[in-house]
Amino acid sequence: MTSVPLNSIFQVGYGHKLDLNKLKQASSRDGIAFVGRSRRNLGVTAYVEPVPGLSPYPAGYITVALGGASVLYTFVQPRPFYTAQNVGVLQPPSDMSANEKLWYALCIRENAWRYHGFGREANRTFRSIPVPGRADAPDWALQSNQFDMTDDTPACMSKVHPIELDNWRGFSLGKLFDIKKGKRLTKAKMTEGATPFIGSSDSNNGITAWVDKKPLHSGNTITVCYNGSVGEAFYQPVPFWCSDDVNVLYPKFKLNVERALFICAIIRLEKYRFNYGRKWHLERMRDSKILLPSKSDGSPDWDWIDKFMKERRFSKTLAEFTS
To answer: Shortest CA distance to 51 belongs to which of 34, 65, 35?
Structure first.
């Protein structure tokens, strides 16, 4: 695989360099996305009103955090945006698919180790960091825009009843899921392949490598880190291998992507209870309870969860992608 400098593929810019405290904030529905150096929410830290005389970057461009703890966190932006200080912007070639953009975002992120050190930023050098040439992109990255996120229309336009916490009750994870432990796979025994490897990570859906191993766990399950990034939960749509720092939740009920993402968010709210000295090991996880909306008979109200999730932004695209 041949490496080329980043600026041989993308037009590289250094963003708007705006200060959020000097802008007027707006709602997420009506405002323009403001991208900072965050590793969450595609780097978007707020939504703001248009700045007179300043055009936002268009949807489909790529942002790169150039410093701080989130250095080289890279995201494809699904809507027009402004940027904060120390955020690079990449203009992709006109023929680059959304899949290929996402692949290059991963390639850029893999260079973060070059800047791990106090005070090291990527401002001067990120335009020349090495990435694979377009001829070396994998087949899936050259396909059509499977990940088109330009349509933020909800899957369901009807509004569900507001959240009534009086109707929520605790459900033990062991009652909802069969919980199984992952299996250790050392780096020395890893060879590159097509199976996602889920490690103790808080990003990239938990994927830390792609390995040439037969998957140990089936898709349509949830992974939860019990060591390292304790409490990080991700929905896994396809079969995978996971490390022994990760537990796998096999549902005892009909699981879909809406229910899975809802439960992952609830599980993450429990992470404060655990740390390196109090790990969320298998037995403890089985006994742990999470709060879910319930019906009058005491069972989880899955229908409410489905409707709630389908009225969220981008849920239409999510449903189409997972169908």
So the answer is: 34
Residue pair 49/26 in contact (Cβ under 8 Å)? The answer is yes
CATH value of 165-322 in 3.90.220.20, 3.90.1150.10, 3.40.630.30, 1.10.1200.10: 3.90.220.20
Domain boundaries, the chain: 3-142, 165-322
CA distances to 42, 97, 127, 169, 316 from 148, in Å: 15, 9, 26, 37, 11
CATH of 3-142, one of 3.40.50.720, 3.40.50.11190, 3.40.30.10, 3.90.220.20: 3.90.220.20
Q: What is the band of 320 on the pLDDT scale with cuts at 50, 70, 90?
A: low
Phi and psi, residue 75, nearest 5°: -140, 145
Burial class (CB in 10 A: 0-12, 13-18, 19+), 157: exposed
> Among residues 177, 165, 149, 154, which one has the least CA distance to residue 78?
149
Give 48-105 pLDDT, tens digit per residue: 999 999 999 999 999 999 988 889 999 999 899 999 999 999 999 998 988 899 899 9
In the numeric block, which tokens belong to residue 3?
């490496």
Q: Using the 8-state DSSP alphabet, how is residue 45 labeled?
A: E
- d(Cα 2, Cα 6) in Å, to the nearest integer? 12
Strand 192-198 and strand 241-242: the pairing is: parallel
